[in-house]
Design a protein that fits this description.
Helix content: 55-70%
Strand content: under 5%
Structural class: mainly alpha
Order of helices and strands: HHHHEEEHHHHHHHHH
Radius of gyration: 21 Å
Length: about 375
């Protein structure tokens, strides 16, 4: 027998609150565009599609995701190849081929890869636990799996997605306690390579660190300059919703990568703190859900929840960091807040998976399955 569980009300409420908040701020940030209502209607459609998919996920057992994680990963690799097809199938922006053209909707397979890699890697780690004969062979398999995705993402020039996919997979290895010796050797070798570069190629290091060392505002930091000016204008309480001026041609990517700066200008420090604290609550609950699932022997669910939270933590940290001038702009969207169809839909789906994991962990089974 089992007792039916409902989604965590507090976690669900914060997620829905952020979605609505992002919907409003995305509309405000897109007011600078001639077809601002087009952006608004598209974002509304993306959110509705994401919520619909999220409801389906809440009704889907995690065992289904485990069962189909391998074909999903293979499908995602195929989609990453399709983006290189010529027009009208592939869609290119600023020299980056990252989208598949569905006319009204541009699908970005790299967002799907972030989730499919986590679902696949969780199952892979469990399968490797049963085969301990050759740790190095298992580690090499891991590198090949991650490498296949990374090569395609790098060819798209999507460095941000490459970093998230790679670091999420490596973090899951560490959390699972798999290949720790091998991972330690590789990390040490990588750190040694960095030390060699610092010693023998100081000009390369200077180029990488010039963002933090330079007091001048060149073209490469124009976006950061405009973001900081907007945040400074906002002060504590902001200029008022819709009253920001940086979005009118001054701040590039104001409705996507730099939406946090728009929030800072229009809603001030209070608005930025609301966003940060909301994300902190979601991530804290998510990591606690991963830990609770592990204690109940639900390893696959635990690894998936940990991977999703790691992905969100990295993307949120980098996005806010580049809006505050702590990191150079690198094309990271802010989950649930930035304008974008694929990113919004898969962010909602991923959080729905965490809610589903929590529901299953709280459900009392007469016979629990160990690895789900």
């Amino acid at each position: 027998m089992k007792t039916k569980q409902m989604p965590d009300k507090s976690l669900l409420s914060v997620i829905l609150l952020l979605i609505v908040f992002g919907w409003i701020m995305s509309f405000s940030a897109s007011l600078a565009y001639f077809e601002s209502y087009s952006y608004f209607f598209k974002q509304t459609l993306f959110i509705l599609l994401g919520l619909t998919a999220g409801l389906v996920v809440l009704r889907t057992p995690i065992s289904i995701f485990q069962k189909y994680s391998i074909p999903l990963f293979a499908l995602t690799l195929v989609l990453l190849i399709i983006v290189f097809f010529p027009k009208p199938i592939g869609h290119e922006v600023n020299g980056s081929a990252r989208w598949i053209n569905f006319v009204y909707f541009k699908f970005q397979p790299s967002e799907l890869m972030k989730l499919s890699m986590i679902l696949f890697m969780a199952g892979f780690l469990i399968r490797q636990e049963k085969d301990v004969r050759s740790p190095w062979m298992g580690f090499v398999k891991t590198l090949l799996i991650v490498g296949c995705a990374d090569i395609l993402l790098l060819l798209e020039t999507d460095i941000g997605a490459t970093l998230i996919v790679t670091l999420s997979a490596m973090a899951m290895l560490f959390a699972a306690g798999s290949f720790l010796k091998q991972l330690g050797i590789v990390v040490t070798a990588f750190a040694g390579s960095i030390a060699v570069v610092i010693t023998f190629l100081p000009n390369r290091v200077k180029r990488l660190t010039s963002f933090w060392q330079s007091d001048s505002w060149g073209a490469d930091v124009h976006q950061t300059q405009q973001a900081l000016i907007g945040i400074a204008r906002g002060d504590w309480l902001g200029t008022g919703l819709g009253a920001g001026v940086q979005k009118y041609g001054l701040l590039p990517e104001r409705h996507t990568d730099m939406i946090f700066a728009v929030i800072g200008e229009e809603l001030g420090v209070i608005g930025m703190l609301f966003v940060i604290l909301s994300f902190a609550f979601i991530l804290t609950r998510g990591f606690n859900i991963a830990q609770a699932a592990l204690k109940k022997g639900r390893k696959y669910s635990s690894y998936v929840a940990f991977g999703i939270c790691t992905w969100f933590a990295m993307q949120i940290t980098v996005n806010i960091g580049m809006n505050l001038g702590l990191l150079p702009p690198k094309g990271f969207t802010l989950p649930l807040l930035s304008y974008g169809g694929t990113s919004m839909i898969f962010a909602i789906i991923s959080l729905a998976i965490i809610l589903r994991i929590d529901m299953e962990s709280k459900t009392h089974y007469s016979k629990q399955r160990k690895y789900v």
